[in-house]
Design goal:
656 residues, mainly beta, Lipocalin, Immunoglobulin-like, six-stranded mixed sheet, 48 strands, 0% helix
Amino acid sequence: MAAGTDGVYVSGITYSPDFPTTDGAVQRRSLSRSEAFASKFAFDGALVYSTYLGNGASATGEGLAVGPAGELYVTGFTRDARITPTLGGLNLPGRHFILKLNPEATRIEFAASGVGGSHITIAPNGDMVVAGTAGIGLPGVSESIPTTDDSFQPKANPALCGSGFLGFPCPKQFVLKLNASASRVVWGTWLTGSKSEAPAGVAIAPDGSILVAGTVTASDYPVTPDAMIPVYPSRTQSDFRTGRDSSGYLSRLSADGKQLLYSTFVGGSGTDGVNAMHIDRDGAVMLAGFTTSDDFPVSSTRPTPCLPREYKLGDPALTRLPAPGVRRQAWIARLTRLGTGIAASTLFGGKTAFATSLDMDALGGVLATGDSLEPDFPLSPDVYHGLIGEAGVWLSHWTPSESGESELGCIADPADLTLTARVAPGRLLTLWGSGFGVVPQSFDSGAGQAPAELAGLRVLFDDIPGRLLYVSPRQINVVVPFLTARSQAVILRIEKNGRLIAIHRLGATPRAPRVFVMGERDPNSYGLIPVANNEDGSSNSPQSPASPGSLVTLFLNGAGAQRTPVEDGAVSHQPLLPLDVPVTVSIRDLPLEVVSASAAEGQVAGVWQLKVRIPENQARLALLTVKVDGVLAHPLLEELLVWVTTPEGESVDGSR
């Protein structure tokens, strides 16, 4: 997509023989199973023109640029037949193409074959710069790219990506400059390491230098000595649990393509990438992309629980399933004038978000779009929002100088601190953020009910107030109202002294059970250690194990709605309200006796307790599986470890 002064231009691929075209367009009929197209829309959405492109070649339009008079430049690639060049246009080996349409799309000004890419930009004199990728490595599959001998990197080494018989030529990045009529390659260079790159954009700086940014998987991608991040930062483990490691990059070539003026990695120790780049008329560079790194370089502070986490080499806390916390977050960064540092940057989104494109407004604000794979993307007050499914697209505006504003960073289940994107009736939630602007304060349990307002803060779920347990400048503990979650999604709002300070969209589910667990994991990796009390009231531990045949009490969050009405925020006392959904506890396939399942005495409504009998023949330890109404109450592939004495009275650590 590209924006001009009087409309928006789009290009791509269509398989439709009845794709809409307009009178006078250069190609009104489809001549192959799939073809490229180009369409222009007025800003009010009216179709100005639309045409097929390729004249029978199975082609895809990938990159667009708009000339000063409204001419449209389209670049892409073909799959079988090649684009037919116009008289004087380049006709070189390869599947890439470039063509130029007049402002009315009634005539092709020129077409060139064998040159092109996935991104294109136009110089003031009409010269074109394109960036793309080509595979080199297998006979009959390698692509020819017209590089020049005196360029920065005239040759690239062949390489295979993938593994075994599934190997394929690694996509290698190249940059080409063509004259204004596409009749000559001014210069061409590879810009690649030993693996693959995926350029996200190309731009011409005010000084004529060429900027390219994208995602790289090679640790030997060319960087300069003054790089902001000179060493490939990703430490992601490449195994069955995660995809390939990657990092973002930004590179600046000289105007003649002979020198690499500056090049740096952009990212942290997880899996990162650049999906979009924009440069304004003053040369300021903006980047956007995705990250799983908890150490991504950001200028805005973010609570530690909200930072992305992923499996990494050398990080024992991140080498087990499932990965804790955020999976991927979107980011935006404004670089210093020469791109040698980050002037301002921010992470945003819910558990899984990607930034895919960006632009700048006249005041220096950044407009970014992308997609979210969870229903928890943060919303601004009084904006349009949809309630469709689990995923969606988003539009955000960011002003790099903004600071000190309230932000809801992420939401966790306090039972095990895993991040969540869903509410359930009566579920306790921990809201992590910044700028809440209150002194730490807890509710008075002696009052018998948690309040709907604490220190001037309120949290509303579809306008129903939740009950507050604790507030601080960066944390709010709240109980979801039992009347919530009657639909697929819920709008969460945070108010301070009557003023809306944050808003978040969450999915809704009837129940989201989670057993309360300790912060630490068993050092022998037996399983998660639950908050568990022995029958005598002591805390279960290796030094204080349960006796065979005795009762152990577990505590539960998120059991969901009950048939019996429950008063929001009420502190539970005798007689305890029974949990009226089925609960099962087992050791492997052996079901255990659940003596009782009820509200937890002395705790706020929404916290439940399960009294489970340990088998008479159980010794040393018991690995429990807990399900509520058939829903697992702890992470998949994890079990809950309860310590049990040996028949001789010896605890698991050998003490008596």
